[in-house]
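Ticket 4471: requesting a sanity check on a complex prediction with IPE. Repro inputs:
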Amino acid sequence: MNDVPRVPCHIAIVMDGNGRWAKQRFLPRFAGHKAGVDALRRCVKACASRGVAVLTVFAFSSENWNRPRDEVSSLMDLLVMALAREVPQLAADGVRLCFVGERDGLSLALRAGLEQAEAATLSNAGLLLNVCFNYGGRWDLVQAANRLVAQGQAITESSLGAAMQMGKVPDPDLIIRTGGEQRISNFLLWQAAYAELVFSDRLWPDFDDEALDLALCAFARRERRFGKISEQLAPALHGQPVV
Ligand code: IPE
Ligand code: IPE
Ligand code: MG
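Returned structure tokens:
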């Protein structure tokens, strides 16, 4: 389905609302996280079929360690299970998987799983799926700055941008947050500079193709001025270009 005009090249999503989805159904929070994996599988397919090149999702934040210990360990286990279940199909679909975030705090088994998944999909040329796990925007900025300092490099907008975890990937054009909250929660702080923001009331496990298309339509209606004025962007509509 490619009749949606101006499809963003890079979509980033704060996949929020799993716990509330489970609570509404009198289920444990873990059931919501499991349903969240199903929603992500559908969303990857939908984005690929709409011509999106990069999808970046927020799966576990630096601050999510502060949740009850049971929930944190079930989220770690869920990632191990999801990798085993999903990677073969993702690989077959041409998806390239990349994990973004601090790996030091993760178990050896999980780290090995992340590396295997990345290696198995490394040469794929389809959708790039960045999974932000144990990720925080502030952490990303600090690790980038430390890297430059260690290399004796000057900190400039371009050197810092390149040293960020996704330094080789264009910034997101569209950031969607599901679950009704209207905040960034330490997601891509640097990369969000000129992203269009769309907030959906849908809880993440309920975020379906229709909800994605609504977000894409909202994006298509936005005028991205990047500091300029309208007349500079669409000279055909406004007469002479203003330079
Ligand atoms: C997002 O859903 C998933 C993670 C943060 C791991 P939540 O678990 O935050 O769901 P709500 O916000 O409590 O409904
Ligand atoms: C943001 O959701 C992090 C992820 C979706 C992984 P949270 O549920 O942790 O955000 P807050 O705490 O409501 O801001
Ligand atoms: Mg939440």
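Notes from triage: The pocket of magnesium ion (ligand 3) is lined by residues 16, 179 (CB under 6 Å). Leaving this open until the requester confirms.
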